[in-house]
Design brief:
3-stranded mixed sheet; 3-stranded antiparallel sheet
Length: about 170
Amino acid sequence: MHCPFCRHTDSRVIDSRATDDGSAIRRRRQCPECGRRFTTVETASLTVVKRSGATEPFSRNKVLVGVRKACQGRPVTEDQLARLAQRVEESIRAQGHAEIEAHEVGMAILGPLRELDVVAYLRFASVYQAFDTLEDFEGAIALLRVEEAPTPSGADEANPSATTANT
């Protein structure tokens, strides 16, 4: 680490601390040449590999922009969108890979978005799951209905004769 004051090629770490959200490390350094102190912030880089093969740094803001479009006209607040983007970034970083496919970022958005708003989920899924026909939408809606259908009450399962007792 070069000293920002005298450009000496070395520095000594005096103190290291994780930032509030734990996504970076803040280091207090001192230059052995000029004696001045400075702070550095270290973060793990996460690179997104696009379909074209090009790479770019992961951007939580890009997640927000895409999700905001899917949520347009829906009862979703900016705070909810910010929390969703944070959850997505945390889940991607938890995988422990330095590079991730752009398609995987889109897929990582689907779960939290579905919990937030089903209509926005369908809008977003139609892009990332490449819906081509009405049948693709119908299949996704049918799957949502099956997964959200109420389960039979425990009382009827525990006593199957309760419904046939009066016959």
